[in-house]
C-alpha cells in the first residue's frame, strides 16, 4: 500500500534550545504583565514547548503569533520578548499596560503586526522599531507616549499614533492635530478612537491574511526534510528535524550492540550506551519483536506522537532507525542513569540520593506525567511508571523515559485488543483484571515509585517472606504506617538525614495514589498541587476515614471466617468422638 504520511503536528527539535528560550521569554512576559492566577494557567515554566499554550500559535515549533487583547493586564512589557525572531504578530491591545516599549522589540525581525493601542504606555517610541523591515501594521493609538516619532517608521504602510503626545516631525504632519488637547481637536480624537479601533481590527485581519499569503509562498521555497522508508521507495515521511539514523551508524556507536554497553533491559528491549562520530553520547533502545515489516507505518505514527511531547521532565527523542526487521529509538545519554540505579545499585564511593534530591525527583516526575495526561493531544499513558524508568540528568533532575512505548509496541498487534504492559508490583489492580489502562493506572504506578523513593526498596521483595507476609512494598508500608513506625519505613541509606514531616507527606501522597479504586485516586495535576503543599491534608483525612471503615469491614468478615473454621473443626471432632 502506498501512503504519504505528512506529519502536520509540531516538529520536534533535537535539543531543548529553541522551545526552551521561547517558553522562557513568554513566561517572562506573563510575569511582567502581572497576569492573574486564573489567566494563562497553561503558560507553565516547566512546560518548555509553548506551542500548546493559550493564544500562542506556532509553525515548525517556532512561535509566530501571540494575541492577548483586553485581558486586564496592568504590568509592563518584558524586553525578553526580543528573542522571538520568528514572531510575526504581537497583539496586546485594550489592556492597562504601563511603562515603556522596550528597545529589544527592535530585534523582532519577522514582526509584521504590532498592536499595543489602548494601554497606558509612556516614554518615547524606540528608534529600534525602524529595524523591523517586515513591519506592515503598527498600532500605538491612545497611550501616553511622547517625544518624536522616529523617521524610520515612515516606511510602514499602516500605522496609528492617535491619542498620544507625540512630536510628529516632517514625516507625519497629519498626526499632530490629533495629538493636540484643544477642544476642537478632542472631537477629532473621538473620531480617531473609532477609526483607530476599526483600523486595529482591520490591521490584524490584513496582517493575518498577509501572513498566510507569505506563509504559502515561503512553503514553496522551504526545504523539506524527507527520509526514505525501507521497503517502499515512493513513500516519504516528513519529520522536520527528527533524525533518521542509519543502522551502520548505530552499530558503530554501540560496538555492534555489545553487551558491555548495555545500560538496562526491560519489557521493550535493551538499552545500549553509544558514542556517535562527533563524540555525542546517546542511548539506543533496541525494541523487541519487530520482525513483521507491516508494523513500520504504525511505528512511525507512534514515533511522531512521542516526538512532539516536549517537557523539561520528559526524555526527548533525538531520532530513530528502521530496517526490515529492526526498530530503534535514539535518546540523549543520561549520565546519572536511573533513579532505581541510584537507590539500589550504586557502586562504592558513588553518592546516595539525598532527601532534597528525592523530593525534586518526586515533583519533576509528577509534572512530566501531568503533561502527558493533560497537555498532550492525544493524551499519552505511560503504563510502566517506576523508578527504573525515571532517569537523572547532569543536575539530578527527573526525566521520565519510555513514555508512549507501551502503545508503540502494542500498535502492531492485530490478534489481540489489549496487552498488559508493565512491571509486577507497579501495575494497578484494574489493569491486571481488565487489561484496560487509563491515566489512573499511571497514578498508581507513580504512587509505588514514591514508595521506592522513600524506602529505597523494590516494589516486590520476596526476602520479606522470612519476617512477614507482605511481599508487596505497598502492603509493607501500609502496615508500618498504621503502626507509626516511620523510622522503619525510610531508606537506611539516608542515615536519618531527612525531614520527618516531608517523608510523612510523601507517604500520604503515595497511599492516595495507590487506592484500589481508580476513581478514588487523584489526577497528576492534583498530585503536583499536593506535593507543593496544597490540598493534601483534606484528602488524607477523607482517605483515613474510608480506610478505617474498610478495615473494620475486613475484620468483621475475618472474624466470621475464623468462627466458621472453628465450628467445622469442632463438629468434625464431635463426629469422630461419637463414632468411636
Can you describe what's shown?
This protein is α/β, with parallel strands linked by helices and 580 residues long. The protein is built from 14 helices and 19 strands. The strands form five sheets. A six-stranded mixed beta sheet has the order 1-2-3-4-6-8, sandwiched between helices. The longest helix has 44 residues, at 536-579. 38% of the residues are buried.
The whole-angstrom Rg is 31 Å
CATH architecture of the largest domain: Alpha-Beta Horseshoe
CATH topology of the largest domain: Leucine-rich repeat, LRR (right-handed beta-alpha superhelix)
What is the number of beta strands?
19
For this entry, give a set of tags.
580 residues, alpha/beta, Leucine-rich repeat, LRR (right-handed beta-alpha superhelix), Phosphorylase Kinase, domain 1, 6-stranded mixed sheet, 14 helices, 14% strand
Question: What's the layout of helices and strands?
Answer:
Layout: H1 17-32, E1 56-59, E2 62-67, E3 89-91, E4 113-115, E5 122-123, E6 137-139, E7 144-148, E8 158-160, E9 165-167, H2 183-221, E10 226-229, E11 232-238, E12 243-244, H3 247-253, E13 262-266, E14 269-275, E15 281-287, H4 296-307, E16 319-322, E17 327-332, H5 339-344, H6 355-374, E18 390-392, E19 398-400, H7 405-410, H8 429-434, H9 439-455, H10 473-482, H11 486-489, H12 500-513, H13 524-531, H14 536-579
Parallel strand pairs: 2-3, 3-4, 4-6, 5-7, 6-8, 7-9, 12-16
Antiparallel strand pairs: 1-2, 10-11, 13-14, 14-15, 15-17, 16-17, 18-19
Helix pairs in contact: 6-9, 6-13, 9-12, 12-14
